[in-house]
């Protein structure tokens, strides 16, 4: 039992690390990390030196450039034509774009109305500030009246720009909003009614022609494949004829394969030509139906353009203050006041109020007058009673 206890105690002591062991292990770890950092630093310096050497070499020698990627061929504009399948969508979306243009128009001139309002406020603030300052200055006469006329004119202009701001919001903004609601009716779950109707009509008119065009494209692809097969068969036949070691039987088989390829090509070409004839014969009817739908869309767009033209002209009439009678009157009165500045009148006024023209009591003999005796209160009251009737 004592031996087992001693063994357990020995094992327990051996498992518990001492302070010196911890210090040595820690020092070993730090030393290892430091060594790794030094190696990493040397590697980075070596890589940096190689990079600098390469850059210096590239400055003295011409480094071959990587071949640029081939540019994608530009899209054929004919494939984006109105007549191609599905390309009528731009006309369908024009309704949505017109609706959005109305929103942008209202937002644009609401912002302009804010500018006009802010300008009116700034004019009023400027006039109030400087009117009080000028009134306290020693300017006088017609010059003073001319300066003050700028402030009265500014107040009238401030009122004008406030009315412009109000007109842009209440008159034009409300006008466009009402027209927009009336002109762009919606269908439930279908967006704008006009867009839905145009899309349905275009799709219905284009569907037969689009099917014929799809068949034509399939015939074209089949024809081109047969042409490729025939070309490959012709090349093979040419090589066989030039090969003297090939047996006549094998040459005969190659020639028969080429003939079958030519025959198949002719058949596919006939189908291709037939499909093309079918498409070409249907094209006039297709164009007529598509143009009729397009013209209906044009008529609606014409109405929108005419309305927005009237709105723009109306906005112009609000903003063009050069032809405004009130503005003309303001500046006309201001000009008349400025032209009424008269130096002679101002100088005469100053002379009479602050100069030699002022009335003066020149010195003269003044006779002595005895002072008036004041009556006491009792005598005043008695005299007042006596004077009563």
Automatic annotation (TrEMBL):
Pfam families xref list: FCH
Chief location bin: membrane
Extent of Basic and acidic residues compositional bias: 247-269
Entry-linked CDD domains: F-BAR_PACSIN
Domain F-BAR: 75-346
Residues spanning the membrane: 21-40
UniProt-recorded Gene Ontology molecular function terms: phospholipid binding
GO biological process: cytoskeleton organization; plasma membrane tubulation; regulation of endocytosis
UniProt xrefs under SMART domains: FCH
Keywords: Coiled coil, Membrane, Transmembrane, Transmembrane helix
Annotated protein name in UniProt: Zgc:91999
Organism expressing this protein natively: Cynoglossus semilaevis
């Amino acid at each position: 039992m004592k031996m087992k206890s001693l063994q357990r105690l020995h094992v327990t002591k051996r498992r518990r690390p001492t302070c010196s062991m911890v210090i040595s292990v820690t020092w070993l770890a730090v030393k290892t990390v430091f060594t790794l950092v030094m190696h990493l630093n040397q590697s980075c310096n070596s890589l940096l030196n190689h990079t600098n050497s390469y850059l210096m070499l590239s400055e003295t020698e011409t480094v071959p450039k990587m071949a640029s990627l081939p540019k994608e061929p530009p899209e054929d504009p004919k494939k984006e034509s109105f007549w191609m399948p599905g390309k009528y969508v731009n006309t369908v979306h024009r309704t949505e774009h017109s609706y959005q243009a109305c929103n942008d128009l209202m937002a644009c001139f609401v912002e302009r109305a804010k500018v006009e309002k802010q300008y009116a406020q700034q004019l009023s603030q400027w006039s109030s500030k400087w009117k009080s300052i000028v009134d306290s200055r020693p300017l006088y006469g017609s010059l003073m009246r001319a300066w003050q006329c700028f402030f009265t004119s500014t107040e009238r202009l401030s009122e004008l720009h406030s009315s412009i701001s109000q007109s842009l919001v209440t008159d034009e903004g409300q006008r466009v909003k009402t027209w927009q609601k009336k002109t762009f009716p919606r269908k439930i779950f279908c967006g704008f009614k006009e867009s839905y109707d145009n899309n349905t009509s275009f799709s219905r008119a284009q569907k037969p022609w689009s099917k014929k065009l799809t068949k034509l494209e399939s015939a074209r692809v089949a024809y081109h494949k047969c042409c490729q097969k025939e070309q490959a068969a012709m090349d093979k036949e040419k090589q066989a004829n030039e090969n003297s070691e090939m047996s006549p039987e094998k040459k005969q088989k190659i020639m028969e394969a080429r003939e079958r390829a030519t025959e198949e090509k002719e058949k596919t070409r006939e189908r291709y030509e037939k499909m093309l004839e079918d498409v070409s014969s249907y094209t006039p009817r297709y164009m007529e139906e598509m143009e009729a739908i397009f013209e209906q869309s044009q008529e609606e767009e014409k109405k929108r353009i005419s309305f927005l033209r009237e709105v723009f002209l109306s906005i112009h009439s609000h903003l063009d203050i050069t032809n405004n009678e009130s503005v003309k009157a303001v500046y006309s009165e201001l000009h008349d006041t400025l032209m009424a500045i008269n130096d002679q009148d101002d100088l005469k006024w100053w002379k009479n109020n602050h100069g030699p023209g002022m009335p003066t009591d020149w010195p003269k003999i003044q006779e002595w007058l005895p002072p008036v005796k004041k009556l006491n209160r009792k005598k005043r009251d008695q005299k007042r009673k006596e004077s009563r009737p």
